[in-house]
Please model this.
Amino acid sequence: MYHDIIITMLTIFGIFLILLTLPFIPSFFELKRPRDTKPLFIDLNYSKDVRYFGKSFRNIIGKTIEVLGISEENLDSDQIFEVNIKRDEKEKLEFSIKEEYIPESLEINHIVVAKNLKTKPFTTFNKEIYVRGNAKIGPFNTIRAIAVDGNLDLGRGTRIIRWADALGDVKVNDNCSLGLSLTSERSISLGRRVTFKRLFGKPVILASGFSKKRKREEIRNEINGSVKIDGRINLDMEEGLIINGNIFAEGDVSLRGDIEVNGDIFSQRKVILDGVKIGDEGKIKSVIGAEGVVLKSNILIYGQVLTEGIGKTE
Model:
C-alpha cells in the first residue's frame, strides 16, 4: 500500500512538471531553431553624418593650406607643395589658381586643389581632389575620391574608387561606378547601369515623369502605419498607393507603380523600386537593402539609399 502511494505521488508530480513546462516548449524550439536568425540590417554607423568623408577631407585640406599660408593672392602660378596630411607621411599637393584646371597628364599621382576642374577622357587620379567650384569629369575617368563645393558632373563610365561628395547638384551619367559613397547637399541625378553602395541626395532621381503622376488627393488607396512582414513584400499599384509609415521585411521588398512611401524601407534581402517616391522635401528617409537595391525608373528618394550588397540602376 505504501508503495502504491509513492507511485501515485510521483505520477501526480510528473504530470505537474509536464503542465508547468508546456508553455515553454515553443520558446525552446524557437531558441534551438530560430526562424528570425538575423537582426534587421541597420548598421548604427550609417546613422551618423552621411557626408562625413567629404567634410573631413575639406577640414584637413583647409588646415593644411592655412598652415602653409597658401592663397591665390601670394601665388602667380600653379604650384606643387610637399605636405604632411598624415603623421610622418609626406604627400604632394598641387594648388591651382587657374579659373579652370585641366590636367595635362592622363595620370595624376598627387592631391589636387582647384577652383574649377575639367578633365579629359581616360584620366586617372590616384590621390584625392578638392574643387572649390564646379567639376566636370570626362568619360571613363578613374577617381580615388573627390570633394566639390559646387556642382559635379561625372562623365560616362567614370569609376569612383572611394567616395565623392558635393555641395551642389550631381549628375551621374550612364555606366558609372560610384565606389563606397556618393553624397550631395542637393540633388543626385542617376543615369542607367550605375552601380553604388550608398547614396544621399535631396533628392536622388532616376529618370523623369513625376509631373504625370496622380495628385495626392486623387490616390484612393492609403495605408496608415508601418508594415512589417516576415517574408516578401510585392506591391504593383498602377492605380496609386500612399504608405504613411515604414516598411520592414525579412524578404525582398518590391514596389512598382504610382507609390509614395512616407517612411523608411528596410529589407534583409533586396529592395526593388520602379515608379516610387520616398520621403519629401524636409522629410529625409532611408532605403536599405542588405543584399541589394535595384532602381528601375521614375525614382525620387529624399535621403539615403544603402546596401551591403550591390546597388544598381537599370
